[in-house]
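Sequence in, structure out. Go.
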Amino acid sequence: MSDFKRLWAPWRIKFVAQGPTRGCFFCRAKRSKEDRRNYVIVRGTAAFVILNRYPYNNGHVMIVPYRHIGKLTLLSPAEWMECLQLSQRLSRRLARVLSPQGFNFGMNLGRVAGAGVVGHLHLHLVPRWHGDTNFMPVLTRTRVMAQSLDELYRLLVE
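Output:
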């Protein structure tokens, strides 16, 4: 018997098996009518909210303007306002459903700032709990998610 423990993450096989994707997944989700499949939580007139498939923490959502732009200065006042309103709406919903003790909220603009999607800006809203950062990310570069995306989607859409 091995001394290794197993951390099962069967949902990751989709990511591993698909290989690199072409184009902007935000734009694909924007055009698609399959919100459940794409984990789109809310659609507004200028922006939408989507679950992060590779979250920093449980409940990590992204607020995304429909327009494919990479600079904050290119957002119209209406787009910026709706992004902020959707952020408030989702923080209330996440607070009700998950009872976090705090949130991280922000953007990574540009590759050097940590942006994974450079050309389509988006805001991150990440619920936080006391003690949610532990040795796993530090020692094993592994994050432990306590809830599936499908379950979280169901809770946030209901």
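Check: Residues 25-157 form a domain with the HIT family, subunit A fold (CATH 3.30.428.10). The helical segments are 13-18, 25-31, 35-38, 77-98, 135-140, 149-157.
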